[in-house]
What we know:
This protein is mainly alpha-helical. The protein has two domains: about 20-170, Helix Hairpins (Orthogonal Bundle); about 180-235, no CATH class. It contains four helices and three strands, in the order H-H-H-E-E-H-E. The chain has helices at about 1-85, 90-170, 175-185, 210-220, and strands at about 195, 200, 230-235. The chain has a three-stranded mixed sheet. Helix 1 (about 1-85) packs antiparallel against helix 2 (about 90-170). It starts with a helix and ends with a strand.
Amino acid sequence: xxxxxxxxxxxxxxxxxxxxxxxxxxxxxxxxxxxxxxxxxxxxxxxxxxxxxxxxxxxxxxxxxxxxxxxxxxxxxxxxxxxxxxxxxxxxxxxxxxxxxxxxxxxxxxxxxxxxxxxxxxxxxxxxxxxxxxxxxxxxxxxxxxxxxxxxxxxxxxxxxxxxxxxxxxxxxxxxxxxxxxxxxxxxxxxxxxxxxxxxxxxxxxxxxxxxxxxxxxxxxxxxxxxxxxxxxxxxxx
Length: 238
């Protein structure tokens, strides 16, 4: 009977640990959500910086083109003055060619200025949209942070209760089984007390349990262990 009571205590301890593990999983999920929100904000802010940089580049290019247009205007004015002063048809025709070339180049640059102005307007709309996204995401993140803080606090409170419960349960276990159970948990075996599945396999490692061990479990002679080290018990559906 002592073995049955000890096994029941082991099962209860595992239920407590499973509850703690589930709470920890939820708590981590809430923390991950906070990180995800911050990641979204960071990505949007990086995008905003890139869009602003693109606008600065467009503005710089436009100003360069405008300066070049001004330079051509000055050159055209000079050519026009020279045109009135030339003394031969050859010089006159040469200046006319240069004037036409300047006008054509100026026309191309003016088109580039207009095109760049249009692209700047488009870029400003993009920046406005990203700013709106950031504002919306910041509001959502702030609300999520408040909501998640409550959930995290609830989890941590429940986890503290599970820890206290665990400490009590562990204290009433015979030392041999307490140490054995803790060793399994330390090795990463979340299931340290496994039920027999389909009447023959360990619910932890899914290996077949030897018939002799199954008989010992069925007869409640002693607490048996699987070759994987887990404590075994008969499930109600076995």
